[in-house]
Amino acid sequence: MAALTDRPAVGPNRWEERVPGLRLARSYERPWLPKDIVAGLVLSALLVPQGMAYAQLAGLPPVTGLYTSILCLVGYAVFGPSRVLVLGPDSSLGPMIAATIAPLLLAGGDPARAVALASMLAIIVGVVMVVAGLARFGFVADLLSKPTQIGYMNGLALTIIVGQLPKLFGFSTDATGFVAETRAFVSGLFAGEANRTAAVIGVSALAGILLLNRFIPKVPSVLVLVVLTAVAVNLFDLEAQGVDTIGVLPQGLPTFTIPRIGWGDLPPLVLGALAIAVVALADTMSTSSSFAARRGERVQGNQEMIGIGAANIAAGAFQGFPVSTSGSRTAVAEQAGSRSQVTGIVGAVVIALVLLFANSIMQYVPQPTLGAIVIAAALSLTDIAGVRRLWLQRRMEFLLSVVALLGVALLGVLPGILIAVGLSILNVFRRTWWPHQAELGRVEGVAGLHDTESYPDAERLPGLIVYRFDAPLIFANARSFGETVRELAEDDPDLRWIVVAAEPITDVDTTASDMLQELDLWLNARGVSLVFAEMKDPVRAKIERYELTRTIVPEHFLPTVDAAVAEYQRQTGASWRGPEEPT
């Protein structure tokens, strides 16, 4: 498994730590160059069609996908710590970008304003990521738990697929939102709006990509289908039959541009940028950990944030839009023999050459093929096996996954990500609010004390209850703890000691402290002692700082549960008995 590390940069290596591209330039080995060049050429064949397809998914002109790809590859090569990760336009971010900028567009959807908004969005995402990386906030990626990630990505895939179906069948709709888009697609289909020729191209391209990915994964399926469908459009003049194509791209490289937006646009852009940053970070951490583990490398979480931030700022300054790590493109680069970020630089150079000297190379690529590329990418986002595993292993987390899916599909991408993050946090809080609690007993032939629910025949000591509370003791669960202990005391008139197995209790806050003081006084009035065993030193220090030892005497804090049981037996002479034996 990949190790996570983020040692602060000090001394003469500081710049190399913060700008890994410098370290790469100094340590680069000449034998790597041929492999990096080949991998870069292979990668560029994927970057060009995917970049344009994902730009359209974000509601932007196709050429902006190429601008974005060039600059983000260069930005990450300079500031990114991983040797193999490939950044670029991403299918999971496209709907989030569209959802952020669409409400801000003026009537008619001016493409220039859309590009300006998307570029500013990328810059804000980049600034957020760089600042968070410098502040060592890499832990933010943990805000999305695995079940909510699965639900979010499945919901995202569903919305992407439904949104691309009209393009796949050669027509368009003005509907927005999963339900409206579904209704509009079905209505258009039955109304005969679909173009049969375009539908054949789109469905064939999708089937071809999926089949090649399934049976011949080493073949660049996207490139193959782009070439085949473009040749078919040109050879049979399918444009005359109503098949839309990309057309000739603008010639030349993007220029440095400061996006011009209004102050009123900033709040929604910032909100969208925060959501995009969380998704991009979670995606990058999981992808980088996976590839680093296979290569025996370390993942530098905070520097990854800086690298992604730099890539987004670079893209935004040159008419691009937000980017993230791509697992599929990274896998392609690695399989092609990539040794370093020079692979990305080669890919960026190839795209630049296409824009400068071969801008008409994609003019016959049909729009249904771009729709097929996006749908194939969306299908790769789904995790049906993960949903099935959640159903079999933990129903509550399965329900969280379903709610996250419905949030994305029914409320939209940005509300969906907020719901996913909120559900992850609430799930953690739920486990703390209602933790597992157990009464412990001795089981013959098994060392230690164990949950009497799991072992109903466990033996108990008369007058003693050993109680375990599996959570920090805080304001949210203090009342539950107190009520449970009072019920235990009331149910056993001969009770003399309640021993709390405190090893799982990692914290005690002031609310819980007040509860413990009242509880101890209540128990003492009934001749029952409240005893703690295996309490951690930091928690014991808090207990003393709260001055709880004025009511709970120091002798009632014992190092282990066994020591507490032995002390009780020494004082009372009690012996173990089965659950049904009389006292």
From TrEMBL:
Q: Name one GO biological process term.
A: transmembrane transport
A cellular-component GO term for this protein: membrane
Question: A Pfam family for this UniProt protein?
Answer: Sulfate_transp
Q: Which Gene3D superfamilies match?
A: STAS domain
Q: State the membrane topology.
A: Multi-pass membrane protein
The portions of this protein that span the membrane are 63-80, 92-109, 115-139, 151-169, 189-212, 219-236, 269-293, 341-358, 370-392, 398-426
Q: Which domain of life is it from?
A: Bacteria
Asked if Transmembrane helix is a keyword of the record, the answer is: yes
The places in or outside the cell where this protein is found are: Membrane
- Where is each STAS domain found? 454-568
What keywords sit in the KW lines?
A: Membrane, Transmembrane, Transmembrane helix
Question: Under what name is this protein listed?
Answer: Transporter
Which NCBIfam families does its entry note? sulP
